[in-house]
Task: structure prediction
Amino acid sequence: MKSILTLNTVLFSILSTALFSQSDTPKLVVGIVVDQMCYEYLYRFQDQYTEGGFKRLMNEGTNCRTTHYNYVPTYTGPGHASIYTGTTPSNHGIVANDWIDRITKTAVNCVEDKLVQTVGSDSKKGEFSPVRLKVNTITDQLKLERPGAKVISMSIKNRGAILPGGHMSNGTYWFDSKSGDFITSTFYTTELPKWVTDFNKKDLPEKSMKQVWNTLHPIEQYVQSGPDNSPYEHLLPGKTEPVFPYDLPKISTKENVYDVFTCTPFANTFLTDFAIQALHAEKMGQNGSTDILCISYSSTDIIGHEFGPQSKEIQDTYLRLDRELERLLNELDRTLGKGSYTLFLTADHAVVPVPQLLIDKKLAGGYVFLSESVKQLKTAVMDKFGAALIMEEENLNIYIDRGLMREHQLNYDEVCRFVKEHIREWNGVKNVYTSSELQTGSGDKWFEMVRSGYHYKESGDVIFTLESGYLPKSKDTDKARKGTSHGSPYLLI
Ligand SMILES: [Zn+2]
Result:
């Protein structure tokens, strides 16, 4: 095995790519994305890692230590697209997980595609494709140049599978939390291959949800994370305190069982099982050409959002993921032989500590509550220009109704500048840029990061960033001050 370990630091990272020489062609490239993995997890939890997982990658591979994403926003869609295209949202067009469609004036998902149908379930969870990805992925290039090469991509999240797999994959699969099965869409095929159907028939998620999620080691040994009963954590359904053990049959219902499943480390085990199944069934690395297997672990992100990076739940999730990596690497060694495949591991973004925890510890950080502020902005714009020009705020992008603006013969730059001046006054806002500035201007590294994440058709007309440690929320509620998120340009420590 050759491994290239590229993990993000705290809030952003960028992949360094593996270069192959003709005489040293790997049978298989395995790309692993750990959704929301912070670089520090490699070290914080290393005493409890095995020798065969993260530590093996660090010891036997190349560890790219200072790698950062060079754009904002640092979300899952842009992260996965950037890793596999080698470029930024300004080119690949995946500017966020969701953005405002200017024609329908509603939010669209980065992999949403109304022209395709679900394959493998009767839910609508399969109406997705890479149609919004505007450039080729490394997986596309491989398929173009070596038609015999195989690309298989998988994740619990649809976008975690679809964006890496690109437009030409032989199979792209994601988890349907309605049926509990891996599914795909008619973009790729009209029927699931037999090995996927057979795998689905094992009902592994259902079986996983019959157990109790307890810590892998006695919880007293988890000294690298905060208290288990923390005021900064969300409650899983059916829980009264955010603490171990999680008695899964007791806390889940028939309706939410597979959603709860994705918020347990058992979904990482399930994805590893599926990857190993794909390795054998598709004979990955045994087709006479270089193949690519893309795996994106999503539950790290889902658990991270609920409990935050200081939680016992996150520590346990990474200790268990480490063992899944060991299992996967051992299977790759056994099947293909050491040294005959190349593997990289990276993250699509990291995460900020729960801002309320930062506030309570008198550290820099906080919340920007947008619902009321945007309402006031809309009123101010109406008063000034006599038209309801502000469509929506999404991902710190203000979308202006360009058609209405033209109807009223208003000057675009004047409207944008007015909006910018208004937003600058909001507490917690750091920088504000107008669309024209991003298209023609130049500036410091923060400006360049916003510009690299900007696309004229999909991004807003005025874009702002927050101070370090801040998260945007709609309204100030108890729930809003629990759990955490990501999206900023900062390296927090
Ligand atoms: Zn993500």
Summary: The two ends are 32 Å apart (CA to CA). The chain has two domains: 2-351, 366-481. Residues 6-23 have pLDDT under 50 and may be disordered. The pocket of zinc ion is lined by residues 35-36, 76, 79, 301, 348-349 (CB under 6 Å).
